[in-house]
């Protein structure tokens, strides 16, 4: 029996180590995982021994069923973690499973694999475990019968408290691991799966310091009542939308006809806007908190908080899974009665953007009291639902089409996704107009990151080339306000611009710069989440935009000038001015050391006067 238990522990340790190596996590998590598995073994043995010592025949059934069920569940858990690491680089969680399971069961949630194939894979996993029963059932039965016929009857009074004690110890260990950020527990498969509120970003010392600074800024920020007539604020984030698929950025107008028509309706277009990172976690966090990747923490002082303190009522209409997705809900911080994501509607997939139309149809009509409306769309994202025949703005017509999930993104599929997102946005504008919001609404339309379509790679999150970082940024302002910088911006500048436009003080800890202010030469830093981390330092100098790219872990460096070389094909690292290269390298080194370079401004600054 000890040999069987040792084999099980060894295989568990190998699986945990493989997952940690795949995701470049600390191998210390193997210790946490093996500890939990060993305690689980003890719990099972003590339970079976207790039943055997009392002569209960139930133990014979549990002798096979309980280990078989636990081993199958453990194997499925490893597969779920492997799937999550492969697709979004983080452990699978129970919250995500519970969020997606109802839609998978009722058929509203499309899957990349046929349900028959998925069921067959799960059944095969159970069959494999069942075939292993002859290897562990006889030694386990012999172990229990030998000990129960000998020592256990003489110690039966102590067996029950011992069983209860080990179960309590196991539960306490798991709970302590869930609450701990130590590498032993952080990605240990069982513990990380059970985390009720897993963090998006590792809790580094840098982020702890930032959290304390933002807490102090939050405490000092004034609370005021918004005056009647203040503009409503509408922030629309279209997941994975590249700038070069919209007319204002050089694309054919029919790719996104509605969005491409907005400049003719008075929309301000930022010519070069950049994401802080090529994925949603940090893209959304940076938009709402004006913080770069290494400073993102759930303790950030966010745009929704600023506007709420200034008398705005926040609404969040979020297609996709946000509120249970690795603590991302901490960035929205709204009243649950006005906060919706993909789990708050029935009959449609979690990533079906028609949900947003449904929620808007239930919103109250506009009043003098200003609202902040944050909308997130998933049509362009690889995991979003793509309707078979996008192109109509009627929700009833769209509802008759069967939603499908893209198996992969090609350029043609991507462009169809952009047309669908365009259709959804047009429907949003129609509904906001009917409700009376649009007439005095400050509308900001952007994306959390771009998308690679095969020229260098596929997807997002792994590169810092422009296809992954360059995003659209359009601003519709009901007033004739002068936006003095429409040349270059990043995610960090969106929140300060909105707050500045409303005449509110910009929090001193925010790192961005309002677009109502004159443009200045500046350097911004962008990076990937996944190892090996890739970095980009973008230096906007007059009419030139330099982009220094580095992967320190691989010793790679590149330098491009984006205005003359928008496709990033001419590496100028060896021919550029050495002083320029040194400055760019120095900025990256300062960023890695945690040095800040925020655009400081007086906290009471108001907007420039309208023209």
So how many helices?
Answer: 20
Estimated share of beta-strand residues? 5-15%
Segments where pLDDT lies below 50 for 5+ residues? Answer: 390-403, 597-611
At CATH level 2, the architecture of the largest domain is: 3-Layer(aba) Sandwich
* Shape label: globular
Placed side by side, the strands forming the largest sheet appear as 2-13-9-1-6-4-5
What number of structural domains do the residues give? 2
State the helicity in percent bands: 40-55%
Mean pLDDT: 85
What is the end-to-end distance? 83 Å
CATH class term of the largest domain: Alpha Beta
In CATH, the homologous superfamily of the largest domain goes by the name: Alkaline Phosphatase, subunit A
Could you tell me the number of beta strands? 18
Main pleated-sheet profile: 7 strands, mixed
Rg over C-alpha atoms, rounded to the nearest angstrom? 27 Å
CATH topology of the largest domain: Alkaline Phosphatase, subunit A
Class by alpha and beta content: alpha/beta
């Amino acid at each position: 029996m000890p040999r069987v238990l040792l084999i099980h522990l060894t295989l568990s340790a190998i699986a945990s180590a493989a997952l940690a190596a795949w995701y470049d996590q600390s191998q210390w998590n193997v210790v946490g995982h093996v500890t939990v598995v060993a305690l689980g073994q003890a719990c099972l043995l003590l339970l079976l021994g207790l039943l055997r010592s009392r002569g209960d025949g139930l133990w014979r059934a549990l002798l096979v069923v309980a280990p078989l069920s636990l081993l199958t569940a453990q194997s499925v858990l490893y597969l779920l973690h492997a799937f999550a690491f492969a697709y979004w680089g983080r452990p699978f969680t129970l919250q995500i499973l519970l969020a997606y399971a109802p839609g998978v069961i009722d058929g509203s949630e499309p899957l990349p694999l046929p349900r028959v194939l998925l069921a067959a894979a799960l059944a095969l996993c159970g069959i494999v475990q069942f075939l292993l029963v002859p290897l562990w059932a006889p030694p386990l039965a012999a172990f229990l019968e030998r000990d129960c016929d000998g020592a256990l009857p003489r110690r039966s009074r102590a067996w029950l408290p011992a069983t209860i004690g080990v179960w309590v110890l196991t539960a306490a260990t798991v709970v302590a691991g869930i609450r701990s950020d130590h590498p032993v527990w952080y990605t240990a498969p069982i513990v990380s799966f059970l985390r009720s509120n897993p963090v998006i970003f590792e809790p580094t010392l840098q982020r702890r310091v930032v959290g304390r600074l933002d807490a102090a800024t939050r405490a000092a920020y004034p609370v005021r009542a918004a005056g009647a007539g203040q503009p409503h604020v509408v922030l629309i984030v279209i997941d994975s939308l590249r700038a070069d698929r919209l007319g204002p950025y050089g694309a054919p107008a029919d790719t996104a006809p509605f969005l491409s028509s907005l400049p003719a309706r008075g929309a301000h277009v930022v010519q070069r806007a950049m994401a802080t990172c090529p994925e949603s976690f940090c893209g959304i966090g940076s938009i709402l908190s004006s913080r770069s990747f290494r400073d993102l923490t759930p303790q950030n002082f966010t745009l929704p908080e600023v506007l709420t303190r200034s008398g705005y009522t926040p609404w969040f209409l979020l297609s996709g899974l946000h509120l249970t997705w690795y603590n991302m809900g901490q960035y929205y911080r709204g009243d649950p009665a006005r906060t919706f994501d993909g789990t708050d509607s029935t009959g449609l997939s979690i990533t079906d953007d028609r949900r947003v139309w449904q929620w808007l149809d239930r919103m109250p009509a506009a009043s003098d009291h200003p609202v902040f409306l944050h909308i997130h769309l998933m049509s362009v994202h690889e995991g979003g639902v793509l309707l078979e025949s996008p192109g109509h703005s009627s929700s009833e017509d769209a509802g008759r089409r069967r939603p499908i999930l893209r198996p992969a993104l090609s350029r043609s599929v991507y462009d169809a996704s952009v047309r669908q997102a365009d259709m959804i946005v047009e429907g949003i504008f129609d509904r906001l107009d009917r409700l009376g919001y649009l007439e005095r609404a400050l509308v900001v339309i952007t994306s959390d990151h771009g998308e690679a379509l095969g020229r260098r790679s596929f997807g997002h999150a792994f590169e810092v080339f422009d296809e992954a970082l360059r995003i659209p940024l359009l601003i519709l302002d009901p007033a004739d306000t002068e936006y003095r910088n429409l040349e270059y911006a990043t995610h960090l500048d969106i929140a300060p611009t909105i707050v500045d436009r409303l005449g509110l003080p910009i929090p001193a800890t925010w790192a961005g710069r309002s677009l109502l202010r004159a443009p200045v030469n500046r350097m911004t830093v962008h990076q990937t989440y996944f190892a090996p981390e890739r970095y980009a330092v973008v230096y906007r100098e007059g009419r030139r935009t330099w982009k220094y790219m580095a992967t320190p872990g691989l010793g790679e460096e590149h330098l491009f000038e984006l205005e003359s070389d928008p496709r990033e094909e001419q590496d100028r690292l060896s021919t550029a001015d050495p002083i320029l290269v040194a400055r760019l390298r120095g900025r990256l080194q300062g960023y890695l050391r945690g040095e800040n370079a925020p655009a400081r401004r007086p906290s009471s600054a108001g907007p420039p006067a309208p023209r």
